């Protein structure tokens, strides 16, 4: 599903071209350069991603931005195609799927471990051991603090999510109680 979605199809096309050219890592760097540039220049982002500029000027703007950020011609052409198809709203998802494809290509997997508080070293070691047993690929593990989960942990990778958080358990309990009430009303 990840690779057959609309962002997945764009990402796969870019991945295939990048693989042929041997510049997959450079493309990841281009995405990061673009993000950084747009964070510093939100007005330029609005101009180059909106509908207020004619196609010719928009195309020229993307070529100039590609030159300014030292993009390879293939990445600039890809971004121009995304813009011409009015798909910039999904660029974050395209970037995510592209990263997943590159990681898979390298025999690696990105895994995010979320917890309400920072995990102790022995807790991290147990989580890393579990992840190593679960996935055949080498895992690149990122840890994040997410106070919304209240307690427990959530382990997320591309197509696998293990949610052992208190928030998840409370949601399940809430759903169960609502279903009990609905069943009582039926009788």
Features:
Peroxidase, domain 1, 4 strands, 8 helices, alpha+beta, 4-stranded mixed β-sheet, globular, 2 domains, single chain, 187 residues
How much helix, percentage-wise, in residues?
55-70%
Indicate the radius of gyration in whole angstroms. 21 Å
* Biggest beta-sheet profile: 4 strands, mixed
End-to-end Cα distance, whole Å, is 40 Å
SS summary, helix count: 8
Q: How do the SSEs run, as a string of H and E? A: HHHHHHEHEEEH
The chain-level structural class is alpha+beta
CATH class of the largest domain: Mainly Alpha
Structure in a nutshell:
The protein has 187 residues and is of the alpha+beta class. The chain has 8 helices and 4 strands, in the order H-H-H-H-H-H-E-H-E-E-E-H.
Structural account:
The chain is an alpha+beta fold and 187 residues long. It has 2 domains: 6-103, Orthogonal Bundle (Peroxidase, domain 1); 107-186. It is built from 8 helices and 4 strands. It has helices at 6-21, 24-40, 42-49, 55-68, 73-84, 91-105, 121-134, 166-186, and strands spanning 108-115, 138-145, 152-156, 161-165. The radius of gyration is 21 Å and the shape is globular.
């Amino acid at each position: 599903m990840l690779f057959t979605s609309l962002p997945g199809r764009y990402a796969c096309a870019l991945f295939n071209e990048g693989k042929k050219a041997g510049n997959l890592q450079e493309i990841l760097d281009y995405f990061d350069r673009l993000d950084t540039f747009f964070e510093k220049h939100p007005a330029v982002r609005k101009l180059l991603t909106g509908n207020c500029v004619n196609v010719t000027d928009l195309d020229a703007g993307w070529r100039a931005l590609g030159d300014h950020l030292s993009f390879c011609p293939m990445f600039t052409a890809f971004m121009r195609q995304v813009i011409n198809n009015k798909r910039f709203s999904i660029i974050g998802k395209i970037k995510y799927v592209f990263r997943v494809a590159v990681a898979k290509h390298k025999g690696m997997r990105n895994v995010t471990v979320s917890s309400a508080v920072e995990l102790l070293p022995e807790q991290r070691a147990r989580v890393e051991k579990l992840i190593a047993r679960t996935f055949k690929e080498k895992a690149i593990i990122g840890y994040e603090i997410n106070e919304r989960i209240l307690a427990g942990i959530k382990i997320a990778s591309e197509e696998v999510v293990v949610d052992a958080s208190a928030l998840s358990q409370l949601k399940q309990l809430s759903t169960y109680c609502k279903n009990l009430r609905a069943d009582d009303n039926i009788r």
